[in-house]
C-alpha cells in the first residue's frame, strides 16, 4: 500500500501528528535552552550592568566586551639590545555617550541597521520574514534581519557562533535587554561595543584609529564610512579594501540623503575632501594594522606581527604578555629608515625635474610609485639588523619591499661574489685583495651547454684595461664580476 491509497482523512491525521511531534520537539529544545539561559542570566547581566555603569561615568575602561575585567598584559617586541620596539596596546576602550556623537551618526546607524528600532520590543518579525525570503531567493547571499538589540545580544552573549541554540539563546537575551534597559541605553552600549575592524571596538576607538578624531568631531563622510563598515569591517576597511570602502560609503550617504538626514548638495565635494584628508592623515606616523602604544618602526612591527600570527591568535599576541626578542637593532633601523627616505626623496626630485625638462609630465602619483628598500645582515650568522621596506610605513604604504617584492637580484649579487672571492683569497694564482688588478675583458662562457657572454651596461664602455677589484665593484663592471 502506498500513501496515495490512504484516505484523505488519514493523511491529514498523519500530517498533523508529524507537525505536532515537531512542535513538541521544538518546544522541548527551546525549554532546554531557556533553562541554560536562566542559569547564566544573572552572571551575564551583571557583566553588561558593569559595562553600562562604566559607560555613564568614565571615558575609558578596561572592562572587556563580555564585561569581564581584563587582567591581560601587553606583548612587547625587543631589539638585540633589549630596547622595546613595539608594545601592543592592552585592551583599553575609549567610551563616548550619545550626547558626544553627531546626530547623523546615531540616526544613520538606526536607519541602516534597524529603522524601526524605537518601535519594536527587540524583535522585528516583518524584517525577519523579509530577510528569510530574500535569503531564499538569493541562495543565502542577502543580509540578516537582526535588530540592533539582537546584534548587541549576539555580540555580548553568544560569541556569534552559528547554531539554532545560539539563535534561541539570543532571543532570550534580547528580550531581557529590552526589559532591563531603555532604547537610549541599548543604543549607547551598542555604539560603544560594536566591532569596527583592526582590533577596534566602539565609535570612540574607531574615530581615533581611522581619523585621529573624537566622535563629536566626525564629519558626514567619516560617519558614513563607519556606519557602512559595521556589517563587515574587514571587507569595507579603508585600509585593506579601498574600493569597497568607497562604494559602501556612497551607499550610506545616499541613504542618509534620501531620508533627509543630510543634504544631497555638495556630497561629491565632501567625499573628495574626505579621501584627500584620509590619505594625508594615514601617511604619517608609524601605524600598525593592530593598535600599539609604542611603535618605533612600522616595518619591524608589522613584519614581527605577521610572523607571530602564524603561531598565535589575536588575543595571545596583543594581551598574552609575550616577550619577543629579535636580532634587529632599532638604532641602526631608524638611521636606515632616515637614509632611505632622504635618498628616495632626492631621486624623486631629480626625476621630477628631468621630467619637466624633457616634458615627460610625471605626476606626484607617478613619483610615489618610485620606491626603494634596504636591509643589513650579519653574513657570519644570518642575523638581520635592519629591514626597511620603503620610504615610510603608513596606512597608504604598507608594502615591505625588502621581503615581499619578487624581482631579479641583478647587480645586488655582486657584493656576495666579491666577498666569496676575497674570503677564498686567490684567483688564477693571484692573491686577492681589494686592490688586486683584473683585466676588464669580454669573455664567453659555457653555462649548462649554452654560451653566455656578459658585457658591461654602458654601451660606450671600453674594455681591455686592468682594473682593481675596488674600482670594478664601485663601477659595477659585469665583465670582472
List keywords for this structure.
481 residues; alpha+beta; four-stranded mixed β-sheet
Would you tell me the overall average pLDDT?
A: 82
Please tally the β strands and state the result.
14
Quaternary structure state of the chains depicted: single chain
- Report the helical percentage: 40-55%
Radius of gyration: 32 Å
Cα(first) to Cα(last) distance is 92 Å
Residues in β-strands, percent? 5-15%
The unreliable regions are 65-71, 135-142
Which structural class should the secondary elements be placed in? alpha+beta
- Choose one word for the global shape: elongated
Order of neighbouring strands in the sheet with most strands: 5-3-2-6
- Biggest sheet statistics: 4 strands, mixed
Tally of helical runs: 17
Could you describe the 3D structure shown?
This protein is 49% helix and 9% strand. The chain is an alpha+beta fold and 481 residues long. The chain has a four-stranded mixed β-sheet with strand order 5-3-2-6. A two-stranded antiparallel ribbon has the order 1-4. Helix 2 packs parallel to helix 8 and helix 4 packs across helix 5. The protein starts with 7 loop residues before the first helix and ends in a 7-residue tail after the last helix. 26% of the residues are buried.
Amino acid at each position: 500500500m502506498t500513501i496515495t491509497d490512504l484516505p484523505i482523512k488519514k493523511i491529514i491525521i498523519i500530517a498533523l501528528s508529524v507537525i505536532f511531534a515537531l512542535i513538541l520537539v521544538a518546544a522541548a529544545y527551546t525549554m532546554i535552552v531557556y533553562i541554560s539561559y536562566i542559569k547564566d542570566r544573572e552572571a551575564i547581566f551583571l557583566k553588561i550592568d558593569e559595562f553600562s555603569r562604566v559607560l555613564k561615568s568614565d571615558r575609558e575602561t578596561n572592562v572587556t566586551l563580555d564585561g569581564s575585567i581584563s587582567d591581560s598584559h601587553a606583548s612587547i617586541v625587543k631589539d638585540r639590545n633589549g630596547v622595546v620596539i613595539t608594545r601592543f596596546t592592552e585592551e583599553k576602550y575609549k567610551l563616548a555617550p550619545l550626547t558626544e556623537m553627531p546626530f547623523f551618526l546615531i540616526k544613520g546607524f538606526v536607519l541602516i541597521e534597524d529603522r524601526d528600532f524605537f518601535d519594536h520590543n527587540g524583535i522585528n518579525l516583518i524584517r525577519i520574514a523579509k530577510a528569510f525570503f530574500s535569503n531564499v531567493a538569493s541562495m543565502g547571499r542577502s543580509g540578516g534581519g537582526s535588530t540592533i538589540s539582537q546584534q548587541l545580544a549576539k555580540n555580548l552573549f553568544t560569541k556569534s557562533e552559528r547554531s539554532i541554540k545560539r539563535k534561541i539563546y539570543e532571543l532570550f537575551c534580547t528580550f531581557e535587554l529590552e526589559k532591563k534597559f531603555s532604547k537610549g541605553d541599548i543604543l549607547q552600549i551598542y555604539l560603544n561595543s560594536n566591532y569596527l575592524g583592526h582590533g577596534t571596538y566602539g565609535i570612540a576607538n574607531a574615530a581615533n584609529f581611522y581619523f585621529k578624531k573624537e566622535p563629536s568631531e566626525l564629519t558626514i563622510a567619516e560617519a558614513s564610512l563607519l556606519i557602512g563598515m559595521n556589517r563587515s569591517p574587514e571587507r569595507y576597511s579603508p585600509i585593506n579594501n579601498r574600493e569597497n570602502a568607497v562604494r559602501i560609503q556612497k551607499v550610506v550617504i545616499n541613504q542618509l540623503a534620501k531620508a533627509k538626514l543630510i543634504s544631497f548638495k555638495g556630497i561629491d565635494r565632501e567625499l573628495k575632501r574626505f579621501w584627500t584628508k584620509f590619505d594625508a592623515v594615514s601617511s604619517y606616523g608609524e601605524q600598525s594594522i593592530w593598535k600599539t602604544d609604542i611603535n618605533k618602526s612600522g616595518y619591524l612591527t608589522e613584519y614581527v606581527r605577521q610572523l607571530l600570527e602564524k603561531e598565535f591568535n589575536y588575543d595571545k599576541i596583543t594581551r598574552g604578555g609575550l616577550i619577543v626578542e629579535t636580532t634587529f637593532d632599532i638604532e641602526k633601523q631608524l638611521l636606515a629608515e632616515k637614509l632611505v627616505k632622504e635618498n628616495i626623496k632626492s631621486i624623486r626630485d631629480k626625476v621630477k625635474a628631468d621630467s619637466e625638462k624633457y616634458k615627460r609630465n610625471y605626476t606626484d602619483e607617478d613619483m610615489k610609485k618610485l620606491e626603494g628598500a634596504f636591509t643589513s645582515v650579519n653574513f657570519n650568522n644570518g642575523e638581520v639588523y635592519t629591514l626597511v621596506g620603503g620610504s615610510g610605513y603608513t596606512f597608504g604604504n604598507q608594502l615591505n619591499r625588502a621581503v615581499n617584492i619578487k624581482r631579479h637580484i641583478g647587480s645586488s649579487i655582486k657584493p656576495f661574489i666579491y666577498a666569496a672571492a676575497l674570503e677564498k683569497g686567490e684567483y688564477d694564482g693571484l692573491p686577492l685583495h681589494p686592490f688586486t688588478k683584473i683585466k676588464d675583458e669580454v669573455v664567453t662562457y659555457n653555462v649548462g651547454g649554452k654560451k653566455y657572454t656578459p658585457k658591461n651596461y654602458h654601451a660606450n664602455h671600453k674594455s681591455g684595461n686592468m682594473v682593481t677589484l675596488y674600482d670594478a665593484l664601485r663601477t659595477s663592471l659585469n665583465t670582472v664580476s
